[in-house]
User: Fold these one by one.
Assistant:
Number 1:
Amino acid sequence: MTISKEQKAMFQSYLRSCLAAVLAVVSTGNYEPADLGKALLAAVLPPVIRWANVNDPAFGRKTGK
């Protein structure tokens, strides 16, 4: 299985979002696993929003046109 440049870029974007979300939760002094899990789940949103945007040049969803 090979990973395309687009998939790699999306994964890197997700990792950056994860880092930011977890850092935000931890910086409040909250180390609860459930809250950290929610931060990781919320980190999915930015890359998914970019994927859903057909006009996003980096890794927007292709419409087949």
Number 2:
Amino acid sequence: MHQQKLGRLGEALAKKILLKKGYRFLSQNFRSKFGEVDLIFLDKETLLFVEVKTRIGSKLGTPEEAITPWKIQRLIKTAQYFQLKNPHLTQDCRLDVVAVQFDEETEKLIYIKHYKNITL
């Protein structure tokens, strides 16, 4: 499966499960000079900045292993920029990750996990 197609599929699955949890969708693929936030939601009075990591097979490690301290810092800077551009929204926020893993041979979904507040 092509990398961009895989990423879009992972984001679509993540968006679906977060909507089912009752979160209100605000934006997708928000970009700044610091990087990109895949999904932005509102959970009551908290902004959720969501990084979606999708992997097929385990050659590159698990999706969770792709969330490095460097990546977290770039996500935080991008989230801060979003807040600066949207001062009417709450300033209470958190950074979540949705990990999506597919089987390498069958390309079937193995798991999808939502990790809340990964910066603590």
